[in-house]
Design a protein that fits this description.
The structure holds two protein chains of two kinds. Chain A is mainly beta. Chain A has four helices and 32 strands. Chain A has helices spanning 2-16, 32-42, 322-328, 395-402; strands at 23-26, 48-51, 54-57, 60-64, 70-72, 79-82, 88-95, 101-108, 113-118, 123-131, 143-148, 151-156, 159-161, 166-171, 174-179, 182-184, 188-193, 196-201, 204-206, 210-215, 226-231, 234-236, 257-262, 265-270, 273-275, 280-285, 301-306, 309-311, 336-338, 349-351, 357-359, 375-377. In chain A, strand 1, helix 2 and strand 2 (48-51) form a beta-alpha-beta unit. Classes of the chains: A mainly beta, B alpha+beta.
């Protein structure tokens, strides 16, 4: 089925790339808002919009709704879309068309989200930077790079700093790769939510509240997140106090969380370097809140944690009774934390032999951590490898970043 | 036809109105609606016999909505043009069905009487390949409006006296509200939000095939003090929010569905947690907490003007105090 999808994709691209593609060059300066927006509107499929180096002062969100358009800046430090004086719209740039490539530019201080791509299939973000320049503040926008309800997403060599929710957030999507990017000073560095077939690899997540989150939540149009591979990331020193505006689900992320899986099924966490995340290097938990959505499974299922390297961490957990816990568990908590909840006989957590872990042993869903009876835990060893072979964004998207 | 137009022009001349440009057509140019191009000026369509006074050309029919979208207090003048030899078709309570060649025209104006200034006119044209939405900005002498695909900003004083930077949407922003499942659709002319009399008038002129079957007509906004509170609030939310907050539209990923016909309490936000609200949630946990408007995110965002928090995200430079009052009462009295 995925092969068919790939073939259809290539056919669509062939149609969408006419020979007469044009390049429209936009320079910063007076009237940039109108000139750039007009170019985005009047572009034809296949066209490239070039943003010259410099600072574009913008007052309103931009949007792109033409398929197969490339927006190319002079580099993530050279071309800056400055939204410091933004007066309207919910994001800096909204993309709603397919086969779009965004590369080599930055957004600073958008009032809402940075770049949102919704229902935008086969999108590439390459060397994109979104920064809230005031540091981690609850008044910053929620998401930096925000693809949602899309099939085929590649985020590569990008950077997000200061998002008050998640730096790179991919939601309700499928066939996703987030790689070789840096996320820092966000509440969540990278978050994959209610999505299928996602790869998070070779990123650096540091100085966030939590480094990498894999969530499945109720009450969304797209349900049933799973098949997520989190490999070869450096997840270090996520030590920023949670600055999410209260009421948001990530507001519950504890400072010092490395990789957090909540609900979800089939998640592979492997070959990561996890370092100095003071609450937990890896945390696997059930959904913590009440819900009524009958489609929703609140348990993590088949989360495999293996072959990671753990350094430090677990030494200043933001957990109730931290002092007693540290005393009982030898001065620092084992790197892998499980809340102790699983669905019947389906294992929540599996880990390679010798993985130091502990369980809070919660009595039931929604229980407060103080109701648990923590103990060291030896997770069952996975009987077979999961999520092997090609995964994530379609090959065509990787080819585009070479162009 | 010709005689009537001459009469209209003659009476305008007597009134001393600004002369219509000699080149402007005196009746609607159907080919301009249908052609695959973006007309640069509103005069090309011939929708108005006199632009400055917004006197419509022949066969351009004014209409109003029972409950309108709030637009910073702008006076909104709505017109529909149905092509010759074609008619609208009733389709239950929802949108009328439009023949190809239909044009919907909405002019935004501020100021009363002689001080009235036309700011922009947004048109939706039904072409062979679907609807297209275009914004036009009026010139200083109010004789014509030119296409502004990238939109624009200008200072405006609202009826409540607020000085705002008014936003004319760009062509893409038109689609943010008018988009549904990848297509552009009209929002206003739903049978349930049109008056019985207007619909009857259209049927009697054979511009509409039959009376639509409407069980629940939306209340008249100006009569909200006497109307059923639940109907009034739900009509307000449908008209002001549900173009995005519904399945298949811009805010579908929020899971909030504020359509008039939605009956699931969770879908309209009752005890629903936010999904991607960010700081828009302002520390509150639920979209709507029955009986407690001050703890309801929906009201908080309606009552905000701060970009990134304020809802709606587009077309709002001021808070709709009347709308806030109704929604606050509705949540307050909710059990």
């Amino acid at each position: 089925m995925r092969k068919l999808g790939g073939a259809a994709l290539i056919a669509a691209i062939a149609i969408a790339n006419p020979a007469l593609a044009e390049t429209h060059t936009i320079v910063p300066g007076k009237g940039a808002q109108e000139r750039l927006q007009e170019a985005l509107i009047l572009a034809e499929p296949g066209d490239e919009i070039v943003l010259e180096a410099g600072r574009f002062e913008l007052t309103d969100g931009l949007s792109l709704d033409v398929d197969s358009v490339t927006v190319r800046g002079a580099g993530m430090d050279e071309t800056v879309l400055d939204f410091t004086n933004q007066q309207g719209a919910g994001e800096g740039l909204l993309v709603t068309s397919d086969f779009v490539t965004l590369r080599g530019f930055a957004l600073e201080n958008p009032k809402g989200d940075g770049i949102k791509s919704k229902g935008a299939d086969a999108i590439v973000y390459h060397q994109i930077r979104v920064t809230w320049t005031g540091g981690p503040l609850s008044t910053n926008g929620a998401y930096g790079i925000y693809p949602v309800e899309s099939t085929g997403v590649l985020v590569d060599s990008s950077m997000v700093e200061g998002a008050s929710d998640a730096g790179i957030y991919v939601g309700q999507s499928r066939d996703i790769t987030v790689q070789r990017s840096i996320v820092q000073y966000n509440v969540a560095g990278i978050e994959i939510e209610n999505s299928r077939n996602a790869v998070v690899q070779e990123n650096i997540a540091t100085h966030n509240t939590g480094g990498v989150l894999v969530f499945d939540l109720p009450d969304l149009p797209v349900m049933g997140g799973g098949d997520v591979r989190v490999v070869r990331n450096l997840v270090t020193t996520n030590d920023v106090d949670n600055f999410a505006p209260p009421g948001n689900i990530v507001g519950g992320v504890l400072r010092g969380t490395g990789i957090l899986v909540m609900a979800n099924e089939n998640v592979l966490i492997s070959q990561n370097l996890l370092e100095d995340n003071e609450t937990a290097q890896v945390m696997v938990v059930a959904y913590t809140q009440e819900f009524t959505d009958e489609r929703y499974n609140p348990y993590p299922r088949n989360v495999v944690v293996q072959d990671n390297v753990y350094e430090g961490g677990g030494d200043k957990p933001q957990l109730p009774g931290a002092e007693q816990l540290l005393a009982a568990l030898g001065g620092a908590l084992p790197p892998v934390l499980w809340d102790g909840l699983q669905q019947g006989e389906t294992p929540a957590l599996l880990a390679s032999e010798g993985t130091p872990a502990w369980s809070i042993n919660l009595p039931q869903l929604g229980a407060d951590p103080s109701q648990g009876s923590p103990t060291p835990y030896v997770a069952p060893v996975p009987e077979e490898a999961i999520l092997e072979g090609p995964m994530g964004a379609p090959e065509e998207l990787f080819k585009r970043i070479k162009g | 036809m010709r005689g009537r137009n001459l009469l209209a022009l003659g009476s305008l001349a007597l009134l001393g109105a600004v002369a219509v440009k000699a080149t402007a057509p005196s009746s609607v140019q159907e080919e301009v609606i249908l052609e695959d191009r973006l007309p640069r000026a509103i005069s090309e369509f011939g929708f108005f016999a006199d632009p400055a006074s917004q006197l419509p050309a022949r066969d351009v029919v004014p209409y109003r909505l029972n409950t309108p979208l709030y637009s910073d207090g702008a006076d909104k003048l709505r017109f529909i043009y149905v092509p010759q030899g074609a008619q609208l078709e009733a389709d239950g309570e929802g949108l009328l069905q439009f023949p190809i060649g239909t044009a919907l025209i909405k002019t935004f104006a501020f100021g009363e009487g002689d001080a009235r200034r036309l700011i922009e006119t947004r048109v939706m044209l039904l072409r062979a390949d679907g609807w297209i939405a275009l914004p036009y900005r009026w010139n200083d002498d109010q004789s014509d409006a030119r296409l502004v695909v990238a939109g624009g900003r200008l200072p405006i004083t609202t009826p409540s006296g607020e000085e705002i930077s008014y936003r004319i949407p760009n062509k893409n922003q038109c689609k943010e509200c008018h988009g549904l499942n990848g297509e552009v659709i009209p929002l206003g002319p739903k049978a349930r939000n049109l008056s019985h009399e207007w619909l009857e008038g259209m049927v009697s002129k054979a511009r509409l095939d039959r009376m639509p079957g409407v069980h629940d007509t939306m209340p008249l906004w100006e009569e909200r003090a006497r109307a059923d509170l639940d109907d009034t609030a739900r009509a307000y939310l449908d008209v002001n929010c549900a173009h995005c907050h519904r399945p298949g539209a811009t805010a579908s990923n929020s899971g909030l569905d504020l359509r008039w016909e939605q009956e699931d309490p969770g879908a309209i936000g009752i005890m629903k947690r936010p999904v991607a609200a960010g700081r828009g949630a302002c520390g509150l946990l639920y979209s709507i907490v029955p009986g407690d408007p001050e703890r309801s995110i929906l009201l908080y965002r309606l009552d905000s003007i701060e970009p990134g928090v304020a809802m709606p995200e587009l077309g709002k430079g001021t808070i709709d105090q009347d709308g806030v009052t109704i929604v606050r009462r509705w949540i307050k009295e909710m059990n």
